[in-house]
């Protein structure tokens, strides 16, 4: 018997597969329909909280050690103990500090403090602090770590190597040199002012510089440089320059000094290249600088007269130098400058002490 429903389906389907029997095919499973479970959230590893590790003991040891060693080095530097800085003990301590710092860098918990200790060690170590100490002691002449008692004794020599103590005591004293210089400068200024109407300006102060004794120390003698004076007015005419130098020479010769010598003159012993470098040209008529000199040998007094003439300075090199000098000392840009210099002179106040101390140096 044919099922009418099945017959209709078959007739109208034109080859469609037959419908399943009532109740479905044997063994077929129906999908279980149910609510979908919520998706599990994905958490990035970067978002997971990380517990911060405290700094390790090794890092603190490295940092404290580096700081303490740096303080020791700075103390030695301030004390001028260059020999201590380069001693075996200090070098050994430096190696120990480096070892502790390097070890801390390999520790995860001590690496941050170890890096700070490394920076301190690189900045303040035996090499850097020792070099600074060596420069300091060399400049000041205070290094005596390896000097014998004989060397230290020689450094304290009150005289000057190669100069007879008797000659030092016999020559004019510092006070006599100062009096002669001031009197001569005053007379030169008076005569030039009376004749040419020049006015004057002090362009510096008296300078006393200790003289070295030739044995690594300072003697009791000094180099004297008088107060330099300069005209406020320029002197640019060639004949006027010669006349001014003539007046100066008259004053000095009257006081027992020799006639003046012109360094800038082509007749001097200076090479032409030197003349051009220091005075502008080899021709005194076109030179921007004149420099004349005399002394009272064998006494130590020496005199200098220098003229600056910016009208003979087309390149402006002298002007640049003079402007810097004017900014420093207030000196006029051009004109005549005069001063005295005397090396290796002894003050009257030190003469007795000098004679006593020289008794400690027989044979020097």
List keywords for this structure.
alpha+beta; eight-stranded antiparallel β-sheet; 8 strands; TBP-like; transmembrane helix; 2 domains; elongated
Q: Summed up, what is this model?
A:
The protein has 364 residues and is an alpha+beta fold.
Low-confidence stretches: 42-46
Order of helices and strands: HHHHHHHHHEEEEHEHEEHEH
Strand content: 5-15%
What is the radius of gyration?
A: 47 Å
Q: For the record, what CATH class of the largest domain applies?
A: Alpha Beta
Helical amount: 40-55%
Overall geometry: elongated
Distance between the termini: 155 Å
How many distinct helices?
13
Number of strands: 8
The CATH architecture of the largest domain is 2-Layer Sandwich
Number of domains: 2
Helical/strand content category: alpha+beta
CATH topology of the largest domain: TBP-like
Largest sheet at a glance?
Answer: 8 strands, antiparallel
- Average pLDDT for all residues: 85
Keywords: Membrane, Transmembrane, Transmembrane helix
Protein name: Sox C-terminal domain-containing protein
Provide an overview of this structure.
- It comes from Microbacterium ginsengiterrae.
- The protein folds into 2 domains: 57-139; 166-350, TBP-like (2-Layer Sandwich).
- Helix content is 45%, strand content 13%.
- It contains 13 helices and 8 strands.
- It has helices at 4-13, 57-79, 82-85, 88-105, 111-123, 126-140, 149-155, 165-170, 174-196, 238-254, 272-279, 317-329, 351-358, and strands at residues 200-202, 207-212, 218-225, 229-231, 261-262, 289-295, 302-308, 335-345.
- Strands 1, 2, 3, 4, 5, 6, 7 and 8 form an 8-stranded antiparallel β-sheet that branches.
- Helix 2 runs parallel beside helix 5 and helix 9 (174-196) crosses helix 10 (238-254).
- Mean pLDDT is 85; it is low at 42-46.
């Amino acid at each position: 018997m044919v099922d009418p429903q099945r017959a209709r389906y078959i007739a109208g389907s034109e080859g469609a597969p037959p419908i399943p029997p009532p109740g479905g095919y044997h063994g077929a499973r129906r999908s279980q329909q149910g609510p979908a479970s919520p998706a599990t959230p994905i958490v990035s590893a970067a978002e997971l909280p990380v517990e911060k590790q405290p700094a390790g003991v090794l890092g603190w040891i490295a940092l404290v050690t580096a700081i303490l060693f740096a303080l020791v080095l700075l103390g030695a530097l301030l004390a001028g103990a260059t020999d201590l800085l380069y001693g075996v003990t200090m070098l050994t301590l430096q190696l120990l500090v480096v070892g502790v710092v390097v070890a801390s860098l390999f520790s995860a918990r001590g690496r941050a403090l170890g890096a700070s200790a490394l920076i301190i060690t690189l900045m303040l170590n035996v090499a850097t602090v020792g070099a600074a100490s060596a420069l300091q002691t060399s400049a000041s002449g205070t290094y005596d770590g390896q000097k014998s008692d004989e060397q230290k004794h020689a450094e304290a020599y009150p005289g000057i190597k190669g100069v007879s103590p008797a000659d030092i005591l016999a020559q004019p004293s510092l006070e006599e040199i100062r009096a002669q210089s001031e009197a001569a400068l005053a007379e030169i200024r008076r005569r030039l002012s009376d004749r040419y109407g020049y006015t004057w300006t002090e362009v510096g102060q008296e300078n006393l510089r200790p003289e070295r004794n030739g044995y690594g120390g300072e003697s009791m003698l000094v180099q004297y440089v008088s107060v330099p004076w300069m005209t406020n007015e320029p002197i640019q005419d060639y004949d006027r320059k010669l006349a001014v130098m003539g007046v100066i020479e008259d004053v000095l010769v009257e006081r027992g000094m020799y006639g003046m010598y012109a360094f800038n003159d082509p007749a001097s012993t200076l090479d032409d290249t030197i003349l051009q470098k220091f005075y502008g040209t080899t021709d005194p008529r076109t030179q921007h600088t004149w420099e004349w000199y005399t002394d009272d040998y064998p006494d130590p007094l020496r005199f200098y007269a220098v003229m600056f003439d910016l009208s003979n300075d087309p390149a402006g090199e002298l002007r640049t130098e003079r402007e810097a000098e004017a900014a420093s000392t207030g000196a006029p840009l051009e004109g005549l400058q005069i001063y005295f210099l005397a090396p290796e002179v002894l003050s009257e106040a030190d003469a007795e002490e000098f004679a006593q101390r020289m008794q400690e140096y027989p044979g020097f």
